[in-house]
Design goal:
alpha/beta, Rossmann fold, 4 domains, three-stranded antiparallel beta sheet, aa-tRNA-synth_I_CS, ATP binding, aa_tRNA-synth_I_cd-bd_sf
Length: 551
């Protein structure tokens, strides 16, 4: 993925006209921002914001907010003919107190004395030259965002609070304290109501973020009074980073202080959105446009969490697939809950290259609904991918390849003229396939022995393949395979029809081929696999299966 802001596209009249009618969700969200200012005119800069809680290492869900928001930003710039300035602010809530120790830190004992201190004041347990726990996690986030070429500005809550960027609105919060409390108190239980305050002072003695009741709010002097942890009555100004706001008021305060125009968040925030909006308005701001996305789930169907470290990490996805496949996964159905685990990677990779292949043949109307236009900010590359990722995985499985040169031997025969040098994208995919196979497919491979009917089918398939020329293409091979299956009663499917009008072929036939020959339950089109692997090699594989030599 490359940034639209770094690689300009030509905004032709045809493109702009197609964008005005585009139905892809980034365009729908961008239209909301246009409507927001249709009567007043645009401000100097349209501000897009994303939030990050550095209580744990950044996960893919965090990245997804930035990727998706960038897509909306790009769509907005196209719709406005790039005549309105925009900015994307990635805001880290690193002044939040560390309420629990994350499960995935290397040494919990380092952090235990620092519970409830701002994350930016908690020591870094990961090693390296980082000033704090939050600093390390913030750098990890920025490193990944930079890898994707996003155009953004990073912001630290600690720095903004201490530098006085929020002071004006914090003083207003002191003035309108009662209005804020009237919004917040009905959302709390009776016990919590008795002690609640939107202001959280930072203890001058312990450095912790304190959840304590206020004894006095002095709006004129902009101070709050409370009992510190040592029992001493203490007065602090609400400015200069001496206090922060509770997380719900903090949302609204930040929107009002910065003039945020668009922010998306997960479904777990949806019921609170009305609270954020109301507090923003109380503090003199205008609530931004929202986009609520569904949450990502791990392999057990549980919400992924930075502190738990479940699901996929950013680096883990990139170990097994190109970055664009992750971008595609973020683009597709953002309002549908999706599992974010290793088994989604192969499909995402192949779908990306399928969309990319289709792009050059499409009209502008079709292109603007094609995910690759959004992933590449209007500049999708021209890439020829002759071998799908799923097929490469089966090739690795059948050939037991341990290095890329073995796979390239098969590829060069299958696609003459294609080399690692003239198709670096395919070469990268070959490396990904070997790593993915070794880590996820190989450990679960389980060959089964064929029964008598299956042995007969394999023997007939071997004879049929022997009649084909060595350079037969995938379609001819697939048809030959189907011819064999149609003659075997077990694999006849009378709900389908063959080209000759007889019964079609049951999918159980191909499942049998994969279970017996590859050690997996399913795979891509078997004729394509044979064309890539080789007819002679496939016949040898059948012979080994019949001799019960596969394991």
């Amino acid at each position: 993925m490359t940034s639209r802001l770094n690689t300009q596209i030509e905004l032709t009249s045809e493109l702009i006209a197609a964008a005005a009618e585009a139905k892809a969700w980034p365009f729908e969200e961008a239209q909301k921002i246009i409507k927001r200012y249709e009567k007043t005119g645009y401000p100097d800069t349209i501000l897009f914001e994303t939030g990050y809680g550095p209580s744990g290492l950044p996960h893919i869900g965090t990245f997804g907010e930035v990727a998706r928001t960038s897509m909306v930003r790009h769509a907005f710039r196209v719709l406005t003919n790039d005549k309105v300035k925009t900015k994307l602010l990635c805001f880290s809530d690193d002044m939040d107190g560390m309420r629990k120790i994350p499960d995935n830190v290397p040494d919990r004992s380092i952090l235990e004395p620092h519970l409830h201190k701002p994350l930016s004041a908690v020591p870094n347990p990961f090693g390296g030259d980082y000033s704090s726990f939050a600093d390390h996690n913030n750098v990890m986030l920025c490193r990944f965002l930079d890898t994707f070429g996003f155009d953004y500005e990073f912001a630290s809550a600690t720095q903004y609070y201490k530098a006085g960027r929020f002071d004006e609105v914090l003083l207003r919060a002191a003035e309108r304290y009662d209005d804020i409390m009237r919004v917040m108190l009905p959302t709390l239980g009776e016990e919590r109501q008795a002690t609640y305050s939107p202001f959280l002072p930072i203890s001058p003695t312990s450095g912790r973020v304190l959840y304590v009741p206020m004894k006095n709010i002095d709006a004129k002097n902009g101070t709050i009074t409370f009992d510190d942890e040592n029992g001493v009555e203490t007065t602090l100004p609400v400015t200069g980073g001496n206090v922060k706001l509770q997380w719900k008021p903090d949302f609204g305060m930040r929107w009002a202080a910065l003039g945020v125009d668009f922010e998306m968040f997960g479904k777990d925030h949806q019921t609170n959105a009305i609270i954020y909006d109301r507090i923003c308005e109380i503090l003199g701001g205008r609530a931004p446009e929202h986009f609520v996305y569904e949450l990502f789930l791990d392999n057990l169907g549980q919400k992924i969490s930075k502190s738990k470290g479940n699901g996929l990490s950013i680096d883990e996805w990139l170990t097994y697939a190109p970055t664009e496949s992750l971008g595609l996964y973020m683009f597709q159905k953002p309002r549908t809950a999706k599992r974010l685990y290793f088994d989604v990677i192969p499909k995402a990779v192949d779908e990306y290259f399928t969309y990319l292949s289709a792009y050059g043949r499409q009209t502008w109307k079709e292109r603007l609904n094609n995910p690759v236009w959004h992933l590449h900010d209007g500049n999708p590359p021209a890439v020829d991918m002759p071998v799908p990722f799923a097929l490469l995985l089966n090739l690795v499985s059948a050939s037991n390849a341990e290095n890329t040169s073995v796979l390239w031997g098969f590829i060069s025969r299958y696609a003459p003229g294609v080399t690692a040098q003239n198709n670096p994208e395919l070469d990268a995919l070959v490396g990904y396939a070997i790593r993915y196979f070794n880590d996820f497919v190989k450990p679960s491979k389980k060959f089964r022995m064929p029964d008598d009917v299956e042995r007969g089918a394999l023997e007939e398939l071997d004879k049929k393949l022997a009649t084909l020329p060595g350079d037969a293409d995938g379609n001819d091979i697939q048809n030959a395979i189907l011819d064999v299956a149609r003659t075997i009663e077990r694999y006849q499917d009378y709900t389908k029809k063959s080209p000759e009008g007889g019964p079609g072929v049951s999918v159980s036939f191909f499942q049998m081929l994969y279970e017996v020959l590859i050690g997996q339950e399913r795979g891509p089109r078997f004729g394509s696999f044979v064309a890539l692997y080789g007819i002679a090699e496939t016949r040898a594989l059948i012979a080994r299966a019949l001799a019960e030599q596969l394991s």
